[in-house]
C-alpha cells in the first residue's frame, strides 16, 4: 500500500476539468494571488529545501539516540541531578541521630553544677565551701525501647523516601523520553507532509504553465504548502522544546535508541509500592513517637553525684565529702497532656495520609489501565481508518488524473489520508507510552 507521505510523481495528476469561477471567486483569487506572490518570493527554493534543512539541523544542539544507553542508566543520571536528593540525605541523617540518641546510656544531656559559698563579705569567720555536682538524666521504664523503635521507623521511612525519589524521577524520565519521541515523530510526519505539498505545488505549476490547469489551482496548491510549512514550524519548535526539557532533566546529550517497556503482570497496588511503603513507615514512626511521649509523661529523673569541700572557720581544717542524690520530677496531666496530644494528632494525620495515598494510587492505576485499553481500541480504529484513507487517496488520484474531480477535492482527500496515517503512527507510540505510565502507576521502576 503506497504511503501518503511518499513523494508524488508528476504523472499522478493528469488533466482536470476547467474550473468555473464566479465573480466573487475571481475577486478572491486576485486578492490571494497578490498576497501569495509576495510570500512566494520569501520562500526558499523547494529544490534546495533538503540541503538547507540539513545545514540547519547540523547547527542545532540536538540530542541523539544511541543503542549503548539504557533507560536505567538515564534514570541514574537524572537522580544525581534531582534537587530532592538532599531531602533523602537529610532523612537518613535524622534517622542516624535518633539511633545515636536511643543507644546512649542516659536519656539527655548531663548537667555540671558548681557552687561556692563563704562568709567573707559578712561575718568573716573563715567559713568556706566549694561544691560541684554532675546531674545525669535517667531513662524512664520503657522510654529507651520506645526511642529505639522511633529510630528504627525513621530509618525505614528514610529508605522508603529514597525509593520514592527514584520512582518519581523514573516517571519524569519516562514522560520526557516519550514526549521527545512523540514530538520527533510529529516533526518527521510534518516534514514529509510539507515535502509532499511542495512536490504537488511544483507539479501544478508545471501544468499551469502548460495550460492544463487554471492559475487558481496553483494558488490553492501554494496555500496548501504554506499551511504545511506552518505545521512543520510548530512541530519543529515543540521537538526542540522536548529536547531541552530532556537535557535539563538528565544532563545528557544522548537518549536510548530503545526504551519500550513490557507491561507488568502485576494488576493491583500492594504494600511494596514505594509511595505506600513510605507513608506506612511515616505512620509507624508517628505511632512510635506517640508511645515515646506516653512513656515520657514527665521530665526524666536526675541522678546527682557531687563533692563538697568545706571549712567552718579559720581554725578548722578543710573537710571533703562525696554525695549522691536523686531528683524526681512529678508529672501532671496539665503539663504533659499537650505533648501527648500533639503526638496523637501527628499519628492521626499520618493515618489519614496513608489512607489517602492508598485511594490516590488505586485511582491512578484505574486511570492508567483505562487509558491503556482505550488507546489500544483507538489503535485498531486508526489502523482501519488509515487503510480506508489510503484506498480513498488511490481512487482520488485516479479520478483527478481522468478529470473526474478537482484539485480542491483531491487535497481534502489527501489531507484526510495523511491525518489517518499520522494518527496511526502516533497511536502506536501512545500505546507504548501508556504501558510505561501503567508501570509507573503500579510502582514498577526500570
Number of helices: 9
Spatial strand order of the main sheet: 2-3-5-6
Q: What is the approximate shape?
A: elongated
Low-confidence stretches: 1-59
**Terminal-residue CA separation:** 38 Å
What fraction, in percent, of the residue positions are helical? Answer: 55-70%
Biggest beta sheet summary:
4 strands, antiparallel
- Mean model confidence by pLDDT: 82
What would you note in describing this structure?
The chain has 446 residues and is of the alpha+beta class. 65% of the residues lie in helices and 10% in strands. It contains nine helices and six strands. The chain has a four-stranded antiparallel beta sheet, with no helix packed on it. Helix 5 (143-209) packs antiparallel against helix 6 and helix 8 (333-401) runs antiparallel to helix 9 (407-442). The longest helix has 69 residues, at 333-401. The radius of gyration is 39 Å and the shape is elongated. Mean pLDDT is 82; it is low at 1-59.
How are the SSEs placed, and which strands pair?
Elements: H1 23-42, H2 49-59, E1 64-66, H3 71-81, H4 85-102, E2 111-118, E3 128-137, H5 143-209, H6 215-250, E4 254-256, H7 274-295, E5 302-311, E6 319-327, H8 333-401, H9 407-442
Parallel strand pairs: 1-4
Antiparallel strand pairs: 2-3, 3-5, 5-6
Helix pairs in contact: 1-6, 3-5, 4-5, 5-6, 5-7, 5-9, 7-8, 8-9
